[in-house]
């Protein structure tokens, strides 16, 4: 800025260096316009990631927490290949080649054939294959170290946010926080026989993306998909069709309307039937009262009988 005020024109390299420093110090927040859906502005964002975001060894060390208490231990995962192995699983993907667990290595080294510990489950797993992903291409790896982002093939019982570490140095990295879904749609398979296929596919997608949720409305029986926005759910519906071959009927969730009485009611009913013999006779006096709001909201499907008169006896 001083050079510019003195009439000198700063170079592109100087401008990028200053923006990078400001971004690293959280003083600058570079903002770009674009659309992932229409593939507009994506290249600019990728270039900005390279030019302005800090390298792994430039970020603050990741604090470690105790696996049992969840409290910080005071130790940190320094980005160094000489430290014990610590990594965070941040994405799960299931494709035709098998399950892929994407991990970021915060410290240490990982070699093909190593045994690592899942701090969340307490179980160990042996590393069979490691790959570096570049779009749809996979480059086989024999080792990786701190700062690398890789995908491990065939891991079991691993979910997004789990910490993977050296069995001799058990620890937990700061857990990921997932936002609450803000929009929902109702879906149903176009074919009656597609319900099972849809359920299996949605189950895999929920495991891959914790911000994507599914539930079944107990009252309407609808399958409700929840996500972070309209585009988020549009992509999920498209994946169900293209990847899993499930055609869906998409709509808004139904509103479960409920009926109730507005005022207390008292009445009686007499039953008479003569078809020979002693015949049938019965009389009942009844009163229907309004339930409390709490009872009405929590037990609307239940009939509460307070007292009942039967054979002249109070039951």
Automatic annotation (TrEMBL):
It comes from the Bacteria. GO terms for molecular function: GTP binding; GTPase activity; guanosine tetraphosphate binding; translation elongation factor activity. Keywords: Cytoplasm, Elongation factor, GTP-binding, Nucleotide-binding, Protein biosynthesis. Residues 253-288 form the Translation elongation factor EFG/EF2 domain. Coiled coil: none annotated. Residues 98-165 form the Translation elongation factor EFTu-like domain. Pfam families: EFG_III, EFG_IV, GTP_EFTU_D2. Residues 178-251 form the Elongation Factor G domain. One of its GO terms (biological process) is ribosome disassembly. InterPro entries: EFG_II, EFG_III, EFG_III/V, EFTu-like_2, P-loop_NTPase, Ribosomal_Su5_D2-typ_SF, Ribsml_uS5_D2-typ_fold_subgr, Transl_B-barrel_sf. The keyword Cell membrane does not apply. PANTHER family: ELONGATION FACTOR G 1, TRANSLATION ELONGATION FACTOR G-RELATED. This is Translation elongation factor G paralog. It comes from Photobacterium aphoticum.
């Amino acid at each position: 800025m001083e050079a510019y005020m003195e009439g000198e024109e700063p170079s592109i390299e100087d401008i990028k260096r200053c923006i990078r420093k400001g971004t690293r110090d959280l003083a600058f927040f570079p903002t770009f316009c674009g659309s992932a859906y229409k593939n507009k502005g994506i290249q600019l964002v990728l270039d900005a990631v390279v030019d302005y975001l800090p390298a792994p060894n430039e970020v603050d060390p990741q604090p470690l927490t105790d696996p049992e208490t969840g409290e910080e231990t005071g130790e940190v995962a320094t980005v160094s290949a000489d430290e014990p192995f610590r990594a965070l699983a941040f994405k799960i993907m299931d494709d035709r080649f098998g399950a892929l667990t994407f991990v970021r290595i915060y410290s240490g080294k990982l070699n093909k054939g190593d045994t690592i510990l899942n701090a969340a489950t307490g179980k160990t797993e042996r590393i069979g294959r490691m790959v570096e992903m570049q779009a749809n291409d996979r480059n086989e790896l024999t080792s990786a170290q701190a700062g690398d982002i890789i995908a491990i093939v065939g891991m079991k019982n691993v979910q997004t946010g789990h910490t993977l570490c050296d069995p001799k140095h058990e620890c937990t990295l700061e857990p990921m926080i997932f936002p609450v879904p803000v929009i929902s749609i109702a879906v149903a398979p176009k074919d009656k026989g597609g319900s099972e296929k849809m359920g299996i596919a949605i189950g895999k997608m929920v495991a891959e993306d914790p911000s994507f949720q599914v539930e079944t409305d107990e009252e309407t029986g609808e399958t409700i998909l929840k996500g972070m926005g309209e585009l988020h759910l549009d992509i999920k519906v498209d994946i169900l069709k293209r990847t899993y071959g499930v055609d869906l009927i998409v709509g808004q969730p139904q509103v479960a309307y409920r009926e109730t009485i507005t005022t207390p009611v008292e009445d009686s009913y007499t039953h008479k039937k003569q078809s020979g013999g002693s015949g049938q006779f019965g009389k009942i006096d009844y009163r229907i009262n309004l339930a409390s709001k709490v009872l009405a909201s929590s037990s609307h499907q239940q009939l509460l009988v307070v007292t009942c008169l039967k054979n002249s006896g109070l039951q």
